[in-house]
Each structure stands twice: as C-alpha cells, then as structure tokens.
Amino acid sequence: MLSVAVVILNWNGESYLRKFLPNVVAHSALPDVQVIVADNGSTDGSLELLKTRFPEVGIIPLKKNYGFTGGYNRALSQVKAKYYVLLNSDVDVPEGWLSPLIQFMESNPNAAACMPKMLDYNNPENFEYAGAAGGFIDWLGYPFCRGRILSSIEKDMGQYNTPIQVMWASGACLFIRSTDYHKARGLDDDFFAHMEEIDLCWRLKNMGRQIWCIPQSEVFHVGGGTLPNNNPRKLYLNYRNNLFMLFKNLPLLKVYTIIPLRMVLDLASAVVYLLTKRKDFAKAVINAHTDYIKAIPNLKAKKALTPPQTKRHSQVLVPSILLNFFLLRKKTFSKLSLNKH
Question: Are residues 139 and 169 in the same domain?
C-alpha cells in the first residue's frame, strides 16, 4: 500500500496538465508516493498526453464527467494508500510542499485532514480565494477563510504562518487519511461540485476528528478553472449545496431555525440580482431553493447516517460574517473574535 496518493481529478484540462503536472511529479518524488490522474471522461486529448508524456503517472479513466464529488469517490475507491491528496489540476506545487503535511499528520493522529497555505498563482503575494490559510464558517453557514473574508483578500505577510485548527480544508488541496475519508463515506455525490469539502470536513468534526491548516507547506492555485466566479451554474451549486450542508450537519433544532433565515437572506440576494438586471443569477437562486426543497426526503435519510453535532465547534463565528464585514467593518481574519480559539 502507498503512503501517499496525490490524486488529480481532470476533466478536459489538458492545458493545466501540461503546465502544472511536471512540477507535481518532480516535487512529489518521495518514497511510497504516487501521482495519479483520475479522468472524468475527457475528450480533449488529456489521456493521450498522460500516456505519452507522463508514463510514471497512474491513470484512472472514468466513463463520464461525474463531477468533483462523484469523480473522486469513484477514483479513490480504487486507490490503496494511507493518505490521499485531492489536488486540483490548476495548482502549482513548489519543492518540499508535501513533507510538512506528511510530518504533521504522522505526528497528530487526531487530525483527519489538513491543507497547506494557498496563494494566488497569478498574484503570489496574495492569499487565494478558495482556501487561503484555512476555512471557517459563521453560524448561518457562510464560509470564509483566514486571509479571505467574502471578496476581501489579504496579502500574505506571514501573519497566518501558525498551524491552526480550522472548520474546513480546501478541496483544491486536501490532505486526508484514507480511513477517515471512507469512514465518513467520502464526498457527497449529490453536491457534484462546490461546498463538498466543507460538508465532508463538518461531518469529520462531528465525528470528533480535527481539521488543520499547516502553512509550512504552500501551494499556488489558479482558481475558477472549471466554472468562473460569474457563472450562474456555479452560483446555483453554491446556494443549493450550502442548504444541503446545513441540513445534514446542523443539530436538528437549528435546521428549522437557521435554514429558514438563510433562505430569506438568499431570496434578498435574488431581489438584488433582479434589480441589477442579472436575471440568470436570480433564477439560479430560485432554482437552488426549489431543488433543495425537493431533496429534503433524501437529505433526511443522509442526516440519519451523519454523526450529530453535539457541541458548538469553536471554528464557527458568532455573530455573522456579514455583520462583521458590512457593519462592524472587520475585513481581515485577525479582527474577528474567533481568532482567539
């Protein structure tokens, strides 16, 4: 069995493989570490490139595009390793990126998963939106990061170089014990993409496991490679999956108090989209709510299999990040009260 399997899920990402896979291969060359590409039914020549240029890379061909969640679940069921690294195809890794993560996990058996510091590939002095220096949520389920709150992204000046327990680790570079991944039943196939890593990490924390950010490792992420930030489909997935995640992981009483409030706030955002003549975005919010309501019977069945949250996680911010950001003008993580935890 491998020690570490670095698994890249690819879908028509030949250009990213050409650009970033050479460094992943070269800088992951440690004993019992293998780089594997799981291909989600690409039609752009990705498989041909892998076979001709990267013969040392393992290939797991999948029949079609199962999304981020379904693709990884199918691929990882075929990989035997102590640790998995779920790595986006648009991530550049420097020399020595893997060792601090391995060393931390080997020394901390209570940690289920961790992530490196994530910097912006195109502006490497800045944190990257998708993960920055570790993920958190507020009590309404809005995610934010150490180094990125809503749209406000900080420069990396070493201010977050201390390892810290977080609520979630970014799926762009998620280092996770295979036993924990499978015990938690992996990513939720119904999410397809977006918020799936937050859902998985929340389930793991409800199981009493820890999630960490280890900034002694850093990677550089392009971001938005599959769906750009201004895409209604991405907006739909984020709104729908956030409601899915809340239903599955919140204590039952809070499901019936927090989710209705979230839906009101979501609908307010849909009104703003309409007033600013972005009808496709307003429709995405409405469709997300409609599909969430349709999915409630299925979500109830999943909730029955999900370990209940029995105590408040200290990585959840109260009051809301919206209140902190817009009214209290707290636009950096260091100004938030939970940074004391």
Answer: yes
Q: Do 213 and 118 share a domain, yes or no? A: yes
> In this structure, are residues 76 and 207 in contact, taking their beta carbons and an 8 Å threshold?
no
Selection from 83, 62, 77 nearest residue 9 by Cα: 62
Are 194 and 255 part of one and the same domain? no
Task: Pick the last residue of a domain from 188, 221, 254.
Answer: 221
Whether the model pTM is above 0.90:
yes
Q: What is the pLDDT along the chain (341 residues), one digit of tens a residue?
A: 899 999 999 999 999 999 999 999 999 999 999 999 999 999 999 999 999 999 999 999 999 999 999 999 999 999 999 999 999 999 999 999 999 999 999 999 999 999 999 999 999 999 999 999 999 999 999 999 999 999 999 999 999 999 999 999 999 999 999 999 999 999 999 999 999 999 999 999 999 999 999 999 999 999 854 444 579 999 999 999 999 999 999 999 999 999 999 999 999 999 999 999 999 999 999 999 999 999 999 999 999 998 889 889 999 999 999 999 999 999 999 999 874 43
Dig out the tokens for 251 from the structure: 């204590």
The two three-digit tokens of residue 140, written as one number: 């309404």
Tokens 């409405």 locate to 286
Length of the chain equals 341
Task: Give yes or no for a contact between 242 and 197, defined as CB atoms under 8 angstroms apart.
Answer: no
Largest CA distance in the chain: 57
7 token code pair: 């698994």
* Together in a domain, 118 and 162: yes
Q: Quick one: 160 and 108 in the same domain? A: yes
Phi/psi at 320 (nearest 5 deg)?
-60, 150
C-beta of residue 50 within 8 angstroms of C-beta of residue 142: no
